[in-house]
Design brief:
Blueprint: E1 2-8, H1 14-27, E2 32-38, H2 49-64, E3 72-82, H3 85-97, E4 102-107, H4 115-120, E5 123-126, H5 134-152
Parallel strand pairs: 1-2, 1-4, 3-4, 3-5
Helix pairs in contact: 1-5, 3-5
Length: 159
């Protein structure tokens, strides 16, 4: 199984980089993980709705360039479906059973996702109705992916 995490923007905060690196190291026992950072577009002050759509579309195209046709795409989206960790593990396991070799988790930029990437998603996942910084979301995501593998393997970690 291969897991790709595709994110808009660079991660700069050292404490987040360290936390993510720890979970990526732990995940090596379960899967191959690749992290792709695509550049974010600059957002002008007083950005119009039309400009926001253009920015989201440009970022979406960069994301789509990292996704292969057969990949199962999980879009992190505040408007997505909220599930618990056990259900995430079951969904990932179902992907593997159904022959999907790659699951892509996509974290958009600060404006959210463009329509093209929303339409490409196989599943839209919400971690909460709250809004989180997308940099922090990376850490939360890799921890939940790790937790999902521990659940699938019936190993202690998830309580």
């Amino acid at each position: 199984m291969k897991v790709k995490i595709i994110c808009v923007g660079k991660l700069k905060e050292k404490y987040l980089v360290a936390g993510i690196a720890e979970y990526l190291k732990r995940l090596q026992a379960y899967c191959k993980v690749e992290v792709y950072e695509v550049s974010d577009e600059s957002i002008p002050d007083n950005c119009s709705l039309a400009n926001e759509m253009i920015i989201k579309s440009k970022e979406g195209k960069k994301i789509l360039d990292k996704i292969k046709q057969d990949d199962y795409v999980v879009l992190l989206d505040v408007a997505g479906k909220e599930i618990d960790s056990i259900m995430l593990a079951k969904q990932m396991e179902n992907c593997m059973i159904s022959g999907k070799s790659t699951i892509d988790f996509v974290i958009g930029g600060s404006l959210g996702h463009g329509q093209e990437i929303i339409e490409r998603a196989n599943f839209r996942l919400s971690f909460s109705k709250m809004t989180f910084p997308h940099q922090l979301m990376r850490l939360i995501l890799v921890e939940q992916i790790y937790r999902a593998f521990k659940i699938m393997k019936n190993e202690s970690y998830h309580k």
